[in-house]
Amino acid sequence: MPTRTTAAPRKAATPMAFVRAIVLAYEKFGRDPAAALAEAQITPAALRQPDARITPEQMEAISGAAMLELDDEALGWFSRRLPWGSYGMLCRASITSPNLGVALSRWCRHHALLTDDVLLSLTVHGETATLAIEERRRLGALREFCLVTLLRNVHGFSSWFIDSRIALREVGFPFAAPPHQNVYPLMFPGPVYFNAPCAGFSFDAQYLALPLKRDERALRTMLQRALPLIVLPYRRDRLLAQRVRELLRTRAAAMGNADALARALHVSTRTLHRQLHEEGVSLQQLKDEVRRDQAMDQLRRSARPVKQVAQAVGFANEKSFARAFRQWTGLSPSEFRRRG
Q: What stretches of the chain show up as alpha helix (H) in DSSP?
């Protein structure tokens, strides 16, 4: 689990409210948090500032110290401690899975062996997978920190398992928006909603079929510094090109340019182009693929005039469509239709 890092400090974005939750855990166990606060270079004055923020390095330092001192990786959330190594055990129980779907199912099942105060579940409906948390006991003042950290843990470890940024379609929390709500989009790459029925997030179910890319040796190395894994989002999305194709197929009218696509995928336009380049494709190639497939389908399945097919797949006129179609297939639209 997390240890102190000596890397260059990053921007202070973690709300002090999470540090105050850790202090409450010390109070619960009758311990003094002074040493952990000092190790993280958090002063008593800063702790009292409602809007104060700390860096990921500071959060890594205080949470790591607290987990060791309190011998509780749950930091006081639950009715019993989760001894040091509990979440490492969950990782080891999941890492031999053939794909992410099996790994997450194991994670949820084995988490229930650690505590029955919350229940994690994975469900799939159509193209959407949902990881949800059912609260079975009142979590009190530690509720926000508990639910946020549980979801960040699952999302971070899942992304690490498959070596891919898992874009979230929606993230929900069953409480009102806190004063520091603007930090949530930094923690979760997707639309965040408050006052939801329960805590959880949804994502494209296709990620569940991706094979795990890690082994026991990689796991041992990762567990020496796990916190950055759940604080900093993955940059690479192994399904990005596939997700772009799907948006172009289903929402072509609203996805007319790279900026619109990037917003829908919760990445910057620059990141969109860079990641597609890393996958060996360009946005224009993907647009051409989708238009080609749609045009071929309409020419096969309908008797619509070629001009109408051209307009339906986004061409300004029949001539430009015919030229592009010949480049794609070596045939004119009419020849392709005749050949069936």
A: 16-28, 34-39, 44-48, 56-70, 86-94, 100-114, 143-162, 184-187, 216-223, 227-231, 240-250, 258-265, 269-278, 283-301, 306-312, 318-329, 333-339
Can you list the domains of the chain with their CATH numbers? 14-231 (no CATH), 240-339 (1.10.10.60)
Beta bridge partners of 218: none
pLDDT in tens, 54-65: 988 899 899 999
Provide the angle, in degrees to the nearest 10, between the axes of the packed helices 100-114 and 86-94: 150
Please list the residues that pair with 132 across neighbouring strands: 121, 200
The pLDDT, as a whole number, for residue 224 is 75
For residue 167, the one-letter residue type is A
Give the per-residue pLDDT at 7: 37
* Residue 311 amino acid letter: Q
| Mean pLDDT of the region 36-52 | 92
Tokens at residue 313, please? 């797949």
Return the H-helix or E-strand segment holding 80: none
pLDDT digits (tens, 9 = 90+) for 306-335: 888 888 888 888 888 888 888 888 888 888
Distance CA 127, CA 58 (A): 38
Contacts of 319 (CB under 8 A, 6+ apart): none
Q: What is the pTM of this model?
A: 0.73
**What whole-number distance in Å separates Cα of residue 85 and Cα of residue 82?**
8
Residue 233 scores a pLDDT above 60: no
